[in-house]
Amino acid sequence: MEVVVRSDVLAVPGAQLYYEVRGAGPVLLLICGGVYDAEAYAPLAEAFAGRYTVVTYDRRGNSRSPLEGEPSAQEISTHAEDARRLLEVVSPGAPAEVFGNSSGAIIALELAARCPEVVGTVVAHEPPLFHLLPDRAHWSQLMDDVEETFRAGGPWAALEVFNAGFAGGEEAEAPAGEDELGPGSIPEPSGEVQERMQRNFGFFIGYEVPSFGRYRVELEQLDGVRVVAGVGELSAEEPPGRAASALAEGMGQTASVFPGDHGGFGSAAEGFAVVLDRVLREGA
């Protein structure tokens, strides 16, 4: 049976948020990361549309969610407020389940810390919480270098600095050319989606990477919220995976293992959905 996709735009301070809704039932909000947008979660959203009202959206400044005015360094609190406002529309008065990958996982954690009343379970898949890693000073310097290089030389120069710095991190084994703050190996997108991703790149590397890479989670602010940290079985030893394991340890847990790598929600969507469904049911 074909899943019906309903789309709309929500006006928020400083931006217009494009979002999509599938299915019926309690709300499940999926927050993407990197250069990706709502389309990256389409397979996962369709897998859950039989049980949930699944909501996906393009983060402000990306794809179909334009900013009002010139771009600037992104505040995680602003992105969390965007998510809260969206939930206010699609899930008024009822807490929602929330899944986030990569920088989307950081938004989910900030949402849980700021607005615990609007969330049920929060699943944070490989958030790049570099401050939890032993070589945190390396990552802090790298974010400064990326930001400075972007200002002086543009996005491609900044990406070169980021990739070189990523390879210099403790036990890092990043594939050449892969940005580790965004999803890993997901199926090749269509031409239109590919064009949107390419347009997102400059905003991502210049205005999102430094902010998200510097983000520090305050674990005590997550008390009272069910937060589950997730790692990819193929990426658990890479920095975002190790950061997720450190997050889980800090909360007295063991990270849940998901199929695939940093982008397993796309490359291994069927198995990924099974694990996510189990994690959500355990919190019901």
From TrEMBL:
Gene3D superfamilies: alpha/beta hydrolase. GO terms for molecular function: triacylglycerol lipase activity. Pfam families: Abhydrolase_1 (PF00561). One of its GO terms (biological process) is glycerolipid catabolic process. Residues 26-152 form the AB hydrolase-1 domain. InterPro entries: AB_hydrolase, AB_hydrolase_1, AB_hydrolase_fold. Residues 173-193 are annotated as: Disordered. This is Pimeloyl-ACP methyl ester carboxylesterase. It comes from Kribbella italica.
